[in-house]
Design goal:
Radius of gyration: 16 Å
Strand content: 35-45%
Number of helices: 2
Largest sheet: 4 strands, antiparallel
Order of helices and strands: EEHHEE
Structural class: alpha+beta
Helix content: 10-25%
Length: about 120
């Protein structure tokens, strides 16, 4: 077994061009995005361990918001999730696994969560 560290950022909201129906293809839709990012872990964290031993949560937030390309239409939210995972893999070679959960807020009628969860492993 190996040690691992999972960083979590949940329930971010981002406006993304996505969808397959004509009413979806020209307007950004609100998505709720949650990330679980598994990384290699140092053998021990001490009170003075520097941030470089881990990863900033802001990097995760950036991958799920500002790093999404403006003006690009994603037919499927699976494409959005893949873009986020690739961004995180490119940011840091210590990232081993990314789980992206995306909920399409605009299609919920009674507060239900409708969406996907994509898990990618570094290859």
């Amino acid at each position: 077994m190996h040690d691992s560290l999972t960083l979590q950022v949940h329930d971010l909201e981002a406006m993304v061009l996505t969808g397959i129906y004509s009413e979806e293809t020209h307007l950004a839709q609100p998505l709720r995005i949650s990330l679980d990012v598994e990384m290699d872990c140092p053998p021990h964290f001490t009170p003075d361990t520097p941030l470089s031993a881990s990863k900033s949560y802001m990097d995760l937030r950036h991958a799920a918001t500002e790093a999404l390309p403006q003006g690009v239409h994603f037919t499927l939210i699976e494409g959005v999730a893949d873009h986020i995972a690739e961004t995180l893999f490119l940011q840091d070679p210590r990232v081993k696994r990314v789980q992206v959960k995306i909920i399409k807020l605009a299609i919920a009628e009674a507060g239900e969560s409708i969406g996907i969860t994509l898990v990618r492993h570094r290859r």
